[in-house]
Every structure is written in structure tokens, then in C-alpha cells.
Amino acid sequence: MILKKSWKFLVIFSFLLWNCRSSEEIECRRCNVVIVSVDTLAAKHMSQYGYFRDTSSVIDFFVKKSVIFERAFAPSPFTAPSHASLFTGVYPEIHGVRNITRYFRKQTVINGNLPTIAEILKDAGYTTVGFHGGGNVSGIFGFNRGFDFYLNKGQPSKRYDRWGYVKEALAWLNDAKEPFFLFFHTYGPHDPYLLPEDGLDIFWKDKNNFVVSWKEFRKLNSSIISFPEIRDRFWNQFNLSNELDVRRLISLYDALVRYTLEKIAPLLKEVIDKFPKTVVVFTSDHGEEFGEHGNFLHSQLYNETLHVPLFIYIPKVGTKKIPTNVSLIDVTPTLLDILGIDKKEIVFQGISLIPTIVSFSDSDRFILAESRSVSNYSASLIVGNWKFIGGLEKELYDLRNDFDENRNLCEVLSSKCNEMFENLNKQTAINNNFKKRVVNSNVLSR
Ligand SMILES: [Zn+2]
Asked: Is residue 290 within a helix (H) or strand (E), and if so which, with residue range?
């Protein structure tokens, strides 16, 4: 009983201590900034978000010192638009970036009137470097703007090493000139879910005939084939209407998540051990679908795709769980606020999360996401515990009781459904007005 009381007291005391923290305490002027983006990393597949497999405890040493956002959402299920939102603090409709796919070959670039985080920090005297996996985060989209060095890798090829750039980033850190901004991105868990070696397939015990490693895959496919062909050959092995095959795919994805995080952990460790004045953001651009709502890969707006990890390590701040809904568009304004960089001339759609970190505010904000492909457009809006998806049909979900979005409530709660539909239309109108302002004015004098 006494123990129980002490424990309760400790919790209340810690809570009070936390709430004593002010914005000033969180501020970290001239601190280095590191953004780590692990492509295609669904929050629901991570141990820190309650997953049943140990996929991510290897980065616990970092997470346990970070602010943990329990409900962070990507603004798009696609790589290029989501990263552009991360870099600019605005929604995809505003920055205008879309993925290049085999169906959509048109090149889009981040709107020239929008400053990126790299440009802002370069302007503030930072050394800026980017190590990334190419493809839809290549410099051609404007992601290289403001970087002193931005690794120039194209689409993955036969010799592409999706985990290889940790070594390069660590080597760069050896002689890093502070303050610096380091962007690190990897396609580690992205499909095809091929592990480097068969022995790393740790979450599946039974033997079977699937090719699950790059080593084996290359042995069987000696001629140079394109990335889309590699993907097709990988996926053709699986019958997606067979539950066992789907479970097998998930186990491969989970093993890839773990392998990727094991690769990245030394980078996180190096940064927080050797550079005490560094703010580190760990996140992903979107998650992954495994048939939960019919599809695979990532294109829909359900939480398996939009719910992403977000951990922000801020020196001397420690850990705290934030239950508030936040978006990747909040990352850049938050970083600038932490660094004390005042850029009033820049208008973001995202907000600084410092007040949220201090006092759990802003729970009723509109959190938008959109999915745009050649033939389809759909958008979703989260307000508090309600989520609305407006695509071919209207969908309403109660995230408090149904975070996995299994029960569409639009029929039983039609007035709430209509209210959310109107809210989505309001947000679309806000976007249109914001877009006009961005197109008509150069918000950063460069
Ligand atoms: Zn991606």
C-alpha cells in the first residue's frame, strides 16, 4: 500500500515537474538538427506503439529520452509529397509535389516560393547535409535546395544499398562543423521486402519456397532488371487472397523494420552521445497496408498508412508522451521554435508543437491528408477523435474506440458525418486561399 502511494506520488510529482517546463526551457539556440526519416515505417508495426513483435526496441535508448507523439499523421501516403510537407510545413496541395511512378511521369518540384527547412537553416548559418535513398526524395524535386551536400542517388538499381548511407553519415559527423543540419533517409522497410540474407528472416519459423533475401534473389535473377521488374517478381510469389501468404509478407516487413533500425541505431547513438546540443527528429513519411482495407503497399488514407512514428529528442527535456493529434507539417515550425529562429515572414500551415509539449493543447485542430493518383483523389480529416474520409464514399470513424477503422459510422451518425464532410470542405477552401497567397508572394527573400 505504501509502495503504491509512493508510486502515485512520483507520477504526480513528475507530471507537475513537466508542467513547470516552459517554452524557454525547451528552446535550444544554435543547436544542431538531425531529421531521420525511415521510409514506409508504420507506427502500428513498432514496439513503442504497442506492436506484439520486438521490431524496434533497438532504438529504445533514444526513444526513452525523447518526446513521443502517440498520434502523428502523415499528410499523404506517398513519399515525395509527404517529405515535401515535412520540409516546408505546408500540405501537399500547396507545395505541389507528387511522386514519380510508372503511371505518373510528370516531374513536379517544391513550389519556389516556399522555403525548405534546409534553406532556412542554411540562411541561419548552418552547415547542411543530406544522406538519402534517392527515388522520390531525389534532389530533382527540390529536396536538395539549401543543402551544401545532398547525396545524388537516382532510382534504386542492382547495386543499390538501401542501408548503406549510415556509414557515410557517420564519416561526415567525424569532421562536422557545428551548427549543422543533417537529413538522413532510408528506404529500409520499403517493398520489395527482401532481407540482405536469409538468416535475418527472424519472425518466421517454417521453411517455404519464397525468395526472401536479396542474396537469393540476385542468384536467381542474374541479368540486370529494372526496379519495377524486381517488385513484380517479388510480389508474384504471393497469393494476396491467402491469409498465410499475407502473414508471411508481414513477417518479412517486420524483419526489415528491425534490421533497418539496427542499422540506424549507431547513427542515433553517435549524435546524442557526441553532440549534446542536438535536436533529433525521428519519423517516417507513411506506413504500409497489408490488406486491412483491401489494398497493399501505401496509397489509402487509413491509419495503417497515415499513422507514423514521431519522436523528438530535445536536450535536457527528457521523455513525455503526447496524445494530441499532430501532423508532419508541424515538424519544421516546431524545429524553428526550438532553435529560436524567428521567421515571421514565413507562413506555415503547421504549428509549433512546443505549447503542445508543455501543456497538451490544440486537440481540436484539423489534421488533413490527401491521396492523389492519376485517376483518384481522396482526402481525410481528423478532428479530435473523429476521422472522416471523403473518397468514392463517405466514411466516419471514432478513433477513440476504433483506431483501426473497422466500422464506418456514416450511416448511424449521419449528422456527424455531414459535419465532418463540411469541415473537410472548409479545410479545402482554406488550402485554396493559402495556395493563392503562396503563388502570389515570395515568402522568403532569397
Ligand atoms: Zn515513402
From this structure: strand 289-290
